[in-house]
Amino acid sequence: MNISALLNRPTFHRWHRLGAWALALLAVNSWAQQGPQLNLPRTQLQAGMHVLDVQLAQTPEQRQIGLMWRKEMPQHEGMLFVFEQPATQCFWMRNTLIPLSAAFLADDGTIVNIADMKPLSDDSHCSEKPVRYVLEMNLGWFAKRQLKAGYKLGGAVFKR
Question: b or e along 95-128 (b: 16 or more beta carbons within 10 Å of the residue's beta carbon)?
Fold first, then answer.
């Protein structure tokens, strides 16, 4: 049987459509993850004498899920969102169960601004200028350590 005869068979089209639906369903399921992502790569950052163990959200899918569905996070841990290039970054807290503070960071690790974010909120929190990094920590982590805009965090990720 030649390929044009195969393509014109009604059963081919039915199976082709079924395959397309199956692929679409798999894609939707991956975006509709219902649990926290706990196995992302990690790196360490320094804020003075404080050493942070942070997960790296580097792909669009990892960044979209972020810290959703977490019920708790140790005080010395967080998530660093890494973007391909500097841009105004905006975050919200849909499906995020714990309150967070987000530090918007310049390429060299300098804090541009910090936003405190309420759980389960669609309120948008944006960087005041283009940034490549956003560090999410438990609510108040930066304030408790008196870290503000202009403070420079350290870490290998900022030395690219």
Answer: bbebebbbbbbbeebbbbbbbebeeeeeeebebe
Closest CA to 38 of 76, 61, 69: 69
CB atoms within 10 A of CB 155: 19
Q: What are the φ and ψ backbone dihedral angles of 130, each rounded to 5 degrees?
A: -60, 135
The three-state secondary structure class of 131 is strand
* Residue-wise pLDDT tens digits, 7-30: 455 554 544 444 444 444 444 444
Please report, rounded to a whole number, the percentage of residues in the chain having pLDDT higher than 70.
79
Please list the alpha-helical segments (H only) found in the chain: 3-7, 10-31, 60-65, 141-144
Q: Give how far the C-alpha of residue 25 lies from the chain's centroid of Cα atoms, to the nearest Å.
A: 22
Q: What is the pTM (predicted TM-score) of this model?
A: 0.80
Predicted confidence (pLDDT) per residue in 118-141, tens digit: 999 999 999 999 999 999 999 999
Distance CA 158, CA 109 (A): 6
Chain center to CA of 24? 23
Residue bearing tokens 């459509």? 17
Q: How far apart are CA 118 and CA 101, in angstroms?
A: 9
